[in-house]
Fold each of these.
Amino acid sequence: MNNLLYKHNILNHHTSYMASTAIYLHFLLFILTFCSFIHQLSFSFSSQEYHEALEKSILFFEGQRSGRLPSNQRVTWRGHSGLSDGSSYHVDLVGGYYDAGDNVKFGFPMAFTTTLLAWSVIEFGSSMHDQIDNAREAIRWSTDYLLKAATTTPDTLYVQVGEPSMEHGCWERPEDMDTPRNVYKVSPQNPGSDVAAETAAALAASSLVFKDSDPAYSSKLLIAAINVFHFADSYRGSYNDSLNSVVCPFYCSYSGYNDELLWGASWIYKASGINSYMEFIQSNGHILGADDDGYTFSWDDKRPGSKILLSNEFLEKNSEEFQLYNAHADSFICSLVPGTSSFQAQYTPGGVLYKGSASNLQYVTSTTFLILIHAKYISSNGGVISCGTSKVTEKNLINLAKKQVDYILGDNPTKMSYMVGFGERYPKNIHHRGSSLPSIHQQPQQISCNSGFQYFNSDSPNPNVLVGAIVGGPDIHDNFFDDRNNYQQSEPATYINAPFVGALAFFSAQ
């Protein structure tokens, strides 16, 4: 009997202990969950972290350089490449950038990249501090090349170096390229208003960047921009039709060339103040898409960017001629703001803008940049826009942009930074030839076209970290697969980084 009572007491004590433990564990779980919730609510990067990301986003462009690298090259695993580009055609086309993870120099996305890098400096250069010189150098590396492409031969614009179909069939370092470096151009007989007008925009925008630091260079850029735009306008036609399979399906001008003509004229007017470009915009705006609401801003479609750029002219000068552009700019911005009657964008469950399965972050960075520019523009005009029955403030727009920036830097469901080299966790197997193959300094022997695929198919992380590169990003469900073969998600591109430079500069100053 006593033995049974003893067991009963022990059992009661054990049961009481287990109940207390369970309550404690539930309480501990509640505390941990609550702390996690509070962390998510208060998660924020510091201005120093944004500045670090800014530095890395600019550094990325050094990894994309073609040509003879300078002595102050910081991405040291790269070497000289493409040193004979153009020589078989008796022109000097050495330099410029490789657009993404391949070794072709595509003039259309390179020009757009340059325009947005320049716009980043124009709007937010004062916040770049010790990175302003690096930003200018990133722009100049491209404009030096674009000047050669635009001024070497009268009424001719060289728009591409390399054979994309053959080059994409190889996996080799840019330093080892042995595929044909054929050169392609547009001319009066084979026009390319889209690529020419975008090149004019790049040169004009860049002329503003160097206006104070290098006035002679600035003037040279503006004169070239005016000449290239005259060529684009005088000989109208799409470079798709002139060059066909050379540029399609790689960088087809799907939106046509009207948006580039409006975009190029807008930039030349902003850079020069020449009234004839204002008159061109007023006379041709309706034909060139002033009445069209475009909701995607990219290397192909410039409509939202033109509206935002020209809306500033309306706000600064209170000019009736530009009211149309301001209305369309507001419409574009309103379409992005959840909770308004104008909202029509799509976001993933994690909160990032979603436009397409391939390289979605290019749309995120370009759109975020436009949001911040419009927020800046309206700050001097009451700081509010009307989105249907809703009022959207400058602060609302900045918060929306911040969500996109923070998502890319790591505040997302995967807790991964989509900028290589930033944060504790980032993509290690990016779809990029130079990054994934041994550096020419480590393995000087040539790695041939087909030999490189042993590295492409390897499970090992890329041996060379392409610091600052922003990859294509996650899918509509916020899933990301760090797979070299998954180029839709894992390939970086210059036009993903370019607008992000401006966005990071803005937040580094907050």
Note: The chain is about 50% helix and 5% strand.
Amino acid sequence: MIHTNKLAAGGLFPEIVLTDLRDRHYTLGKPGGGASWQLVVVYRGRHCPLCTKYLNQLEGYKEQLAEIGIDIVAVSGDSETQLQEHMNRLTVSYPLLYGLTEGQMKDLGLYISVPRSDQETDHNFSEPGLFVVNEQGAVQVVDISNNPFVRPELEALMNGLSWIRNPKNNYPIRGAAPY
């Protein structure tokens, strides 16, 4: 039996510091640019064409997310060199970070896959995960998948986050009831 440790909705997001290609360090879940929340997108890596497509589509929502106080960061277990190579297929302006370790993947409760061949990649990698971290550092929204075919549709995600961030709705963290 395989056991995974999923992050609880409403729980504190773990402190993970990663680097971008300009050698700037980011703490996941700590928003920048005047935002109070952060969208953390974990993607499989440069080998995944679905991830490339998703990241490029996410760029189209960056301004809308900023308007509701949410910034974006995307991370993978790729190396610096792999991220540099991936940049040729990406058209994004939000931070892309590399070097997520297998231990950090487990801390985030992500599913981890073994490459099918050396042509895919040279390291175990995480399957997709998406986390929205609020101003208290708590997990407001979480979506974890075991394959690249299932992840939040971006328009629906945007509409939901706009609803949650509207103070008139007083929308609590869902799924945070004690067991």
Note: The longest strand covers residues 37-42.
Amino acid sequence: MLGFKDFHSARVILGGIEVMHMIRKGQMKCVGKDPLSASRKFYSLVM
């Protein structure tokens, strides 16, 4: 494994992984009428 080139990229990638784990476990709440799928919740963070 080559590893991460710098600390910033490692922090961003690991942060995204942690967010996905939180979404999958149901620890992240989205405000809205309709319940969102895990992929929709993740995509809503980008916008």
Note: The helical segments are 7-25, 38-46.
Amino acid sequence: MSTPFLTFVILLAGVTFLFYRWGRRRNTEIAERSARELEEALRPEDQSYTWIGGLIGYRVDYRVRRGELNRVEATLTMLPRHSLLYLPFSWIIRRSDALYLLFRPNVPLRGRGHLILLDHGSAPRVDRPEDLRVEELRLGRHRFRLLYGSDAAAAFLRRVAEHAFGPAGAGPAATSRPEAPVVRHLSINAEEGALYCRMIPVPGRIRPAVERLAAALAGSEE
């Protein structure tokens, strides 16, 4: 084995090890911070965590007592920051960390409906969009696309979204691009009878977003 090649192997091993330590520390911080903010927002009576792949994320089941809301499930998935070789491919495919929540009220939700943030990333795939009516609306300073199968589903999503983003039609368009909300997609999950939410787990912004959604669901009426 030549000396230059051996030197390259040693340097690559050192960089990979340092990158692993940095990525492990960073993902651990994100996981701990997001879990703490979720617990502060929901104040659960009981919780059960399951780690995903050690450094990739976790699943958690919260038992809460918030009016009509009695259970929230969350899944955090993070970029593999500890893997120097896999991280670039994961970033191209997934772009960012993600936090998925399923709010389960006492009375199961029915119908079909999606509220999708526009102008910030690619839109999620929606099953059978041809069966849904579509309209665009402004909440706060942001544009959303509302897809719904019934007036009741549309009214429910509008009410929940106004808790999260501000009243419909409020907030004139600003000359500078406003900071994107962390909540990117809300939908009525008919199979689960629950409200699904996808958000970007930005530290310091998870708690207020989840608090507003939980407050809206605590007195949910479809």
Note: The first strand starts at residue 46 and ends at 52.
